Structure formats: C-alpha cells, structure tokens
Amino acid sequence: MKKRIAMLLAGAMVLTMLGACGAPENESTDNRTEQVQEEVQNKENDTQEDVSGEITVWTGSWNDGLMDEIMKDFYDQYPDVKVNFEYLPWDGMEDKYLSALQAGAGPDVLDMAIAWTIPYASMGKLQNLDGYIETYQVDMSEYYECALETLTIDGSYYALPYRSETMCLFYNKDLFEKAGLDPDAPPATWEELREYAVKLTKGDVFGFGMCGSNAGNTTAQIYSMMFSKGVSLLNEDMTEAAFNTKEGMEVFSFWADLFLKDGAVAKSVLENDNTTNRNLFAEGKLGMFMSGSYDIEPILEANPEMNMGFALCPAFAGGKNSAVLGGWNLGMSDTCKNPDAAFALMRYLASPDVSVDFSSTFSSCKSASANEKYSDEKLKVFLEAINYGVPLPGSPHMNQITDIIYNEAQAVLSGSKDTETALTDAEKGVNDVLQ
Amino acid sequence: MSKNRRRIEKNCWGYVYIAPALLFVFAVMLIPLIYTLIMGFMKTDLFTGKIKFVGVKQFIRIFGDPYFRLAVKNTFLWTAGSVVFQFLIGFIIANILNASQVRGKTIIRILLMVPWVLPSVVSAMVWDWSYHPDYGMINEMLKRAGIITQSINWTSSGSTALISAIIVNVWKMVPFVALMTEAALQGVSQDLKEAARVDGAKSRQVFFHIVIPEISSSVNTVILLLSIWTMNSFTFIYLLTEGGPAHSSEILSLYIYRQAFKNYDFGTASAAASVLFVITAAIALMYNRFVIRRDREC
Q: pLDDT-based confidence at A23, cuts 50/70/90?
C-alpha cells in the first residue's frame, strides 16, 4: 500500500515536470487557431495582388493589442497573406534578436531600433532591399535623410524606416521671466544656454538639467553637443575612435564645466537621469532640460499649470543644431521564405499614413508632418527637429562605446579625473574594443 | 539470499523516488555550473557567432583588466565590511534582548524584523532617496544636527559609494543575525551557567567561557552563510550605485552582469563568474574545515 502511494507520487512529480516542459507547445497551437480564423475571413475577399503566404513579425510588446486596428487595411489589400505578430518586451529584446538571428531562428520581418540595423545587416542577417524598392517603386526620398543613414550600407538599403524622433530643449517660461529673460526667446547657442542657466540658478532651482546617471541619457547630451561641432564619434569604417580632437576636447570641457565651474547644474548630477530631471522640471526646480515629445504628457499630468516652451537643441556658435536621432526600422531577415509578402507588409507599415499610427512618436516620412495627429502646436518644434537629428555610428560595439564614454564622463563629474585624461582614456578604451 | 535481494530492491526504489528531484538539481544547478566553467575558456562574439577556445589566456587577460582587479578588491571590502558589522551589531542586539527584562520585547522583536522582511528592491529605493544629496533625509538630518555643513553625495561619490551600500546591507541582515543568535543563546542550558556562578565565576567569565563556546557552532554557521550571501549579492549595489561612479563600487557580481548583459561578452563573464565561484567555494570549504569541524571535534 505504502509502495503504491509512493509510486503514484513519484509518477505525479515526473508528469508535472514534463507538463512544464510542454507549455510552449500550447502557445503555438493557440496561434494556429487564430491564424485559421484569419484565413477563413480573408478568403471571402477578392485578391488584389498576387501576394500570398504566411509571415512572422517580431515587434515590441507596446504594440500588443494595437495591431488589429493598424492591419485592417492591409488585410483588405492582401487577403491571402497571414501575418503572425510576436511581441517582445524591451528588456532583453536585443539579446533575443541576436541569438535568434545567429541560430537562423529569427522572424521574417524584424521591428528593430535604428542602432541595430547596420550591425545586423553587416552580419548578413538582413536582406538587401534595393530590388524590392525598385519593383514596388518605393520613393526613398520621402523619408528623412538621417533616418536613411541608419539603414544604408554602401548605397544599398537594408530596411525601411517608420519611426524617427529626437530631443528638443524644454524650458520653463515662468522661471525665464523671473530671471529677467525673455520667455519667448530660448537660447539658440550652447554659449547662450550657459549664460541663461547661470542666471536661472538660484536657491534650489538650477538652470540646466544635465544627466550624470544612466549611460544612454548622459551620453545623449554629450553626443548631441559633439555633433553640433562636427565631431564624429568614430572614423568612416568604424575601426577607430575619432572624438579625441581639439573640437571634441572643447565640447567635453564645455559640458563638464557647466557643472564644475559654472554651477548651473544640481550638485546631485551624478544621481540624476532624465526621468529625475523631468520630475524636477515639472516641479519648477529646473529651468531647462532636453527630452523627447513623449515627456510632454507626463509633465502636464504632474503639473497642469506648467508654462513651458520648446526649442531646437542649441548649436555651438558657428555650428549646426544637432541632437541624437532615435527611431525604429523594419527589416527583412535572411531566412525569410516569403519576401514578397514581407516587403508588402514593410512597405505598408512604413507608408506615410500607416507609420503615423504605428509609430508611438513620429513617422519617418517627411510628408507625414502635415498629418492631423501631429497638428498640436506643442509638437511643431519636435517635428522640425527630426531634420537636425544625427544617428549614432552603426557599430555593433556601440553599447560598449557608450559605456566607456559614460564612465569617463562620470569620473570627470566626480572630480577624480580631468577632462583631458578622461577623453584620452575613453579613446584608448574605445580603440581596444574596436580591435 | 532473499534478505539481500529485498535490501537491494529497497535501495533501488529509493533512487527511483529521488530521481525527479535529482534530475531537477542536475538540470538547474550542475549543468549551468559546468557550462559556465567551460565557457570561461572560450572567447565569444555574439555578432559573428564565433565561439573560439582560448584556454587559460582568457583568465590571464581578465586578471590583467584593472577593472576586474578592482572588482575583486571591492568584493572583499564589501564582504568583510558587511559581515563584520552585520554580525557585531546583530550579536549585541541579541544579547541585550536576551538579557533584558523589558516589557515590550515582542514588539521590539517584530519591529526588528522589518529590514529583513522588506523586499530588497523596495528597501534599496527607499535608501536611495534617503541618500539623495538634495532631497534626502540623511543629509538633512546630519545638517540639522550640525555634523556636516554640506550634503554628501553618498551613492555617487567614489569614496562613499561602497560604504553607503554596506550600511544598507548591514541594516538588512542584522535582524537575521539577531534572530539566529537569540535562538542559540536560548539553547544554552541555564544549569551550566548556574553551576559556573556557584563555582564563583563572574558574569563576564560566564559569558566568555560558557555562553560563547556553547553558541559558537551556530554563530560560525551564521558567519559562513552571511559571507557566502554577501559575496554573491547583487541587488543593493546595483540599485544604489550601479557600480559607479566609474566602477569605483563595482563588485564581481556586477562586473559579471555588465560583461554578460551590456557587452554581450559571455566568455569574459563566464571566466569572471568561474573566479567568483572558486573564491566563494574555497572560502566556504576552508571555513568549514578549520572552524566548524574543529568546533565539533572539541
């Protein structure tokens, strides 16, 4: 009797383990039932073009639940195409793409951050789209040039852009007035910004929201300043650091001095990332800071009385307004068995009208700036700013490069290194990585 | 003859019953460990997909990395600093609680458990804000008490980052030490203490010559556990300082995390992880051999 009970228990334990292993299989059966339903629906319409088949698309989990609405017109046009969307959370998305692409187990269409496009293409994992662009007569000039830079290698296109965004200067008009500055005249140059920031700093209010925490936030500000002076981060073939020049040194010193000498930045800079700065700005403790259009709502939610203005990121005197470009592209993987359907989907999602809905910030199409979704006055500057966006180099080691520069920047802010040594050490670190 | 066969049969069934659990342990603990140790000898490049065997050179290379050596040094500072104070403070509190006749003992004990029971992430966030130079409570209180005139950048200054994290770690584990020590103290037989006092021993002698040896085995185990947990810990340092500024408070576990998940350099991360494993295992084995076993023999 005891033996039998023990046997049953052991058997139950083994079965539960096997059951746990079997879980993913259940998910794919659910997908298949979904697809069968779609198939039945689509067969009722007449075929427009001779495009058919099944394709998988990986996209971000923020699109979960939104795709049905966006895909309605696509299914009208291409009723014989079945599209399976898989949603990946941002955390670990890069990892998942890399390992899947290496194993040849990736999707047909990838929704990827612009920073990943050129690295994946260099690995041979993205298909050259020149042929399809010609066949389907896609006019690439309708996209922003800076967005196209993120997907072009030797003149060939490896993706279609659909989302582009960059940072602008947010400034508190009330604080400007209190400091005796014209609330409708935001600083046009970094030198002016420094002047205004010093005037705005009083008591526990500081002039400029510099980031000293979070590698991406901190380096975005430094990179934007460097781009304005025409400093490149890496050389043409991305084999060497190119930022340790006279201009690069000037920019780095200017940036560091905003905190070290001018006193226009909060003492807690090393702990402040851009979210902290946004909160300080919303509370009226910060005169100016840099961010994207996605921060407008949170600020107004935290402080409905906020009287703020927006301006292009300043330029250095004699330089160009520049800010780091952000965004997303759609690419076709090298394992795609149905390129016609895949390209049809990519062209659809990257088209002027659909990309406005698909992109959570702005569309990469120049003509879409007239779309009524962007008609809010507040967004005007952000739309214009996309023209001044500069993408980061498409090196696969960009994460490490940013980390190295971020650590040297922190060393300077904490006073343990001077700017010359820090920039030289950064150059050395980056060259080591790029070897 | 049949008796032997019955015994062998019984043993066989024993293995069958533990087989699922053994399988689990193998899959979840042993195989990843062996995989990591092997990967430590390989150089990986996620972008080209190449995995190349480089052998001992990888270990020589990481020991040549100044940030790795800094991480090892910081790990020892972090462990020693945390365990010493965790134990001392917890031990003192346990002795006070055990000896005192205070009324609200139960309430004090419950309140004492709070740091240990709170989820680490929640505690880290609260301490992070308390340490903030402009809006934090700690700087404010120190300034009002006149101890400092200017705010200290607790978690973002090279000199105080590690110390700030150690303080939080000590705060978290003191309840555990106090609980374990009190349990051990209550296990000391009153008769022994009475007998010693009858023989003319003073309180101090009773404490050092009777109580301490009695609780030593429990105390030694607690210290070993604390050391192993602290050496491997990640949460507090990651959330408070992220290893910064500029790697000055980076411990080995953070170094490994950075190499694996920010630089995608799994070979280096595995090598560093193997080093951490060897250090932890060596300390545990030596401690077991020389301290715990010796106690038992006495």
A: very low
What residue type is A363 in one-letter code? S
Q: Is the pLDDT of residue A50 over 90?
A: no
Does residue B49 sit within a domain? no
CB-based contacts of B81, cutoff 8 Å, min separation 6:
B162, B163, B166
**How many domains, in total, are found in chain A?**
2
* Interchain contact B115–A (C-beta under 8 A): no
Residues B87 and B11 in one domain: no
Predicted complex ipTM: 0.74
Preferred mutation among A2, A270, A413, A435 to probe B, highest tally of B CBs within 10 A:
A270
Contact status of A98 with chain B (Cβ, < 8 Å): yes
Question: In 10 A of CB A116, how many CB atoms?
Answer: 25
Shared domain check, B138 and B33: no
Contact A98 B263 (CB under 8 A): no
Same domain as A424, residue A401: yes
B201, part of any domain:
yes
Which domain covers residue B111, as residue numbers?
A: 68-297
Q: What is the pLDDT of residues A282-307, one digit of tens each?
A: 999 999 999 999 999 999 999 999 99
Residues A390, B249 contacting (CB under 8 angstroms): no
Residues of A within 8 A of B245 (CB-CB) are: 270, 407, 410-411, 413-414, 416
**A105-133 pLDDT, tens per residue?**
999 999 999 999 999 998 899 999 999 99
pLDDT for residue B142? 92
**How sure is the predictor about B296, in pLDDT bands with cuts at 50, 70 and 90?**
low
Chains A–B, number of C-beta pairs less than 8 Å apart: 84
**B155 has a pLDDT exceeding 90:** no
Sign of CA dihedral A174, A178, A179, A181: positive
Q: How far is B13 from chain A (nearest CA, A)?
A: 9
Contact A410, B245 (CB under 8 A): yes
Burial classification of residue A53, based on how many CB atoms lie within 10 Å of its CB (0-12 exposed, 13-18 middle, 19 or more buried)? middle
The CATH number for B180's domain is 1.10.3720.10
In a domain, A401, yes or no: yes
Contacts of A122 in chain B (CB under 8 A): 47
At A35, which amino acid appears?
Q
Q: Does A229 share its domain with A306?
A: yes
pLDDT of residue B6: 75
B102 touches chain A (CB under 8 A): no
Residues present in chain A in total: 435
* B37-93 pLDDT per residue, tens: 999 999 888 777 778 898 899 999 999 998 999 999 999 999 999 999 999 999 999
Range of the domain at A419: 168-322+394-434
- Beta strands per DSSP E along chain B: 42-45, 50-53
Q: Decide if A105 touches B, using CB distance below 8 A.
A: no
The verdict on A132 and A145 lying in the same domain is yes
Instruction: Give CA separation, A37 vs A34, A44, B29, in Å.
Output: 5, 12, 43
Chain B nearest C-alpha distance from A406 (Å): 8
Position A4 in a domain: no
Q: Domains in chain B: how many in total?
A: 2
Higher-confidence residue: A415 or B126?
A: B126
C-alpha gyration radius of chain B: 24
d(CA B56, CA B58): 5
Q: Is A286 helix (H, G, I), strand (E, B) or coil?
A: strand
Q: A17 CB near a chain B CB, below 8 Å? A: yes
Contact A407 B151 (CB under 8 A): no
Q: Are residues B7 and B85 in the same domain?
A: no
One domain, residues A206 and A231? yes
